[in-house]
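Reopening: structure tokens for the magnesium ion complex, inputs below.
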Amino acid sequence: MQDVTATYYFRPRADTTPEQAAQAIVEEETTGTWTDITTTTEYVRRLDGEVLALEPSGNGYVTQVRYPAEIFEAGNVPQYLSVIAGNLFGLGRLEAVRLLDVDFPESLVPFKGPKFGLEGVRKLIGTTDRPHVGTIIKPKVGLNPKDTAEVAYRAAIGGVDLIKDDETLTDQTFCPLDERLQAVMERLDEAKEETGRQVLYAVNISARADEIVARAEHALDLGANMLMIDVITCGFTALQALAEAPSVKVPIHVHRTMHGAITRNPEHGIAMRPIARIVRMLGGDQLHTGTVSGKMSHDVSELKGDNLALTEPYFGLEPTFPVASGGLHPGKVAAEIENLGTNIVLQAGGGIHGHPEGTEAGARAMRQAVDAFMQGISAEEYAKEHYELARALEKWGNR
Ligand SMILES: O=C(COP(=O)(O)O)[C@H](O)[C@H](O)COP(=O)(O)O
Ligand SMILES: [Mg+2]
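Re-run output (same inputs, fresh job):
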């Protein structure tokens, strides 16, 4: 397809037929408006949209529509979104509408994608096939730089591959970014001397758009080996600016805080799928897409498709490493890997720092749960000879 196709679920208002509703979407987003107009000339007609398919689904309908590629400005993602996910959400003739997926032609994917991606991050850590284990420093706010670094050190000694800031921690006075980053990197160097393993630390540089690249460069000067961005609150182009900056030579970890306002309602909003595609196009090396068993609301079949969108061949772009996070602990590891496969970053905040014997033991327990799965042994069985895992299962159970 040379053009863009988008798939929507919708429920029409009582006085509107499904055909009229689908047509209202394509007209609003292409050449039409609510009434006939006198300014449409013949040459404009080639930019009309088209309803390609329409069928009943659940309480409403699913439609696939075609938007001519020419109405898009290549490379301008805010403009893409204004078409595929713009005014249509407010149309009164639709009681609810949800963008499920979008398919762009190659001409509209002039992006370079992830600089590292799944394989690049694996190379940095030195893994080939096992899931990565990450931790979010908890409490999410409050610790000073020294204590943050101590928690990071403990997690690194315990065996995590990745340590990250939480989404609300940026550069507040209780834990200034410079001090925190320097302290954490120093302690991670210390851990490396002891274990020989380099651990990534994703420092959250989320900030106003016109400052984010400078903040990233400053963090890199201070030794950052990974950057983190809250992509929905910062905006997609903030990610693009970071990923495309020649000075940014470390992977970018993408958190999706606020996505629930957009993705969660099964009848209205934007599914995670288009967001995942856009984050990959714009250069996110790792992206949160959710868990099958964690604390955040989730839909397993959508999640599997979202992770596929991050990893399947797509115009030669590197795959983005999917991240499962939110309410995970060692007892949940097997279910996550069974459903999501081994190309996954499994993150635990509470599930590591809540271990009865502390962060280091918590990190060991998570790694042991992954090792057990990779060896085809149940967590319960493995726990018989792995004390930290046993303690974790005792506290949280094995599911
Ligand atoms: O801090 C956490 C999880 O902490 P914990 O491990 O203590 O629950 C993340 O912000 C959530 O994963 C976000 O959810 P999502 O990944 O779905 O965006
Ligand atoms: Mg968080």
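The chain has a mean pLDDT of 98. The chain has 16 helices and 13 strands. Marking as resolved unless the reporter disagrees.
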